[in-house]
Write a structure and sequence with these properties.
33% helix, elongated, seven-stranded parallel β-sheet, alpha/beta, five-stranded mixed β-sheet
Length: 251
């Protein structure tokens, strides 16, 4: 939930706030928690008191629901400045190419929970870079995505781009560009066989309803798919698919 007046974002969920405390406690401008959670945030309260930042134990958890804009607050809500997603630059991608880094590119993934789950999987499997387009169909960083990421937002770099096709064209020959497609010809188990030069890898995940666009497909090196052993359903949820693909790449 964004507080437009103060340009703040509510971060809720125990693991999300604990990760924020561990990695960027200086960003927390306000903190609210239930009596049950109070003993678990004593250290953070001391740090906030030292810099004269407000914190408060609420009398009723309905106050937390109102602050978070969600019933899924898990007894704690922290406010941080609304995150500004940096633009992806050529110098950043040049570093990826040089260091053979991997990245996820989201093609209009519109559900905030899916974004959060993808970020969580990316952090778990060591994909440190996630790219999202500046498109109204693409979910950005929200209270929900922060909570579902379960601390992953503190471990992953998120970048914004204006044009997905432009980025893919710019990375041609520099990174292996895998697009995900239910009709793709390459099972994910064969991904690594197409990276004999050990380059950095870019994996494109598509919109929940339509997948990746035709223009994006045309600018990928290979279209990969997750074969279904049962064959009853055509595809997985995009966040589930991300976990399976990242596991296959990491193992």
């Amino acid at each position: 939930m964004k507080n437009k007046l103060n340009n703040e974002l509510a971060v809720c969920g125990f693991e999300a706030v604990k990760a924020l405390e561990k990695n960027h406690q200086e960003l927390i401008t306000r903190l609210y928690f239930s009596a049950e959670r109070a003993p678990l945030f004593g250290g953070l309260c001391k740090k906030m008191a030292a810099r004269k930042a407000p914190y408060n134990q609420v009398k009723d958890e309905s106050e937390l629901t109102k602050l978070a804009g969600s019933v899924h607050h898990q007894g704690v809500v922290a406010f941080i400045p609304q995150p500004e997603i940096p633009r992806l630059t050529r110098s950043i991608t040049d570093t990826w190419v040089q260091n053979k880094e991997c990245a996820l590119l989201l093609d209009r993934v519109g559900n905030a929970n899916n974004l959060g789950a993808i970020v969580r999987s990316a952090a778990f499997f060591g994909f440190k870079n996630v790219i999202i387009p500046l498109d109204e169909a693409q979910s950005s960083i929200t209270t929900s995505s922060y909570r579902v990421a379960q601390g992953g937002m503190e471990k992953v770099n998120i970048y914004a781009i204006q044009s997905i096709p432009y980025l893919l064209k710019d990375l041609e020959g520099k990174m292996i560009r895998f697009g995900t497609d239910v009709h793709g010809s390459i099972p994910i188990s064969q991904m690594k066989s197409f990276n004999k030069d050990n380059k950095g890898v870019l994996i494109v995940l598509g919109n929940e309803e339509h997948g990746i666009s035709n223009e994006v497909k045309e600018n990928c090196d290979k279209l990969i798919t997750i074969p279904s052993p049962a064959g009853d359903l055509e595809s997985l949820n995009v966040a589930q698919a991300a976990s399976v693909i990242l596991y296959e790449w990491a193992r």
